[in-house]
Amino acid sequence: MESEENSRSLLKEFSLIESNFKTIQESITNVKTMIESLLLKKEKPQTKLENIGITDILELPEELRKSVMAVMKSNGTLEEIIARTKREMGLEKGYLEALVAMNYLRKDTQNKEKIRYRIGLGKRKSKMSDDIWKILIKDSAEMVNFICSTEIEKAQLKLYDIDEMMQMAPQAQTDLNKIKNEINRYISSLEEILLKY
Hints:
Helix content is 72%, strand content 5%. It has helices at residues 2-40, 54-59, 62-73, 78-85, 89-101, 130-168, 173-196, and strands spanning 76-77, 105-108, 116-119.
């Protein structure tokens, strides 16, 4: 009975790991799509606007648009914006700084302890500087490395748990080996992501 509960608990943990991996993959895909869309987007000759319009916001990649929308709801501090976007601090700060450089947002620095981001009202720059891209890519890579490393550690701990369960319940060895193989595949996938980033 206890080994059956352990098996169910392990399956539940594995499902959670799998769900976390899907979230990581989606985040990586979103960052990659955003970078590709900005790098590969053909420059259209257009007049620069004095005010940021809805059309300008809609032309932004989804990840940057999400940050702008969070600021539009209430001019906020980095922490308040993160509460809306649910992103890691370094990644969100990179997006906000990119939007400041593009003049979609501006930083209100009157209170040095609580910098607030507001919708920009100046002319937009048509290109992002290399420095902004470096910040975005660096923060994204650090986030991916941190999440992957954490997930690998958790998965390795689960492998130790499975080995213990095999000793306690040899009759469940076939099922536990299947779970173990899936966890090893998951670890391999995470290691491949780490190599790329």
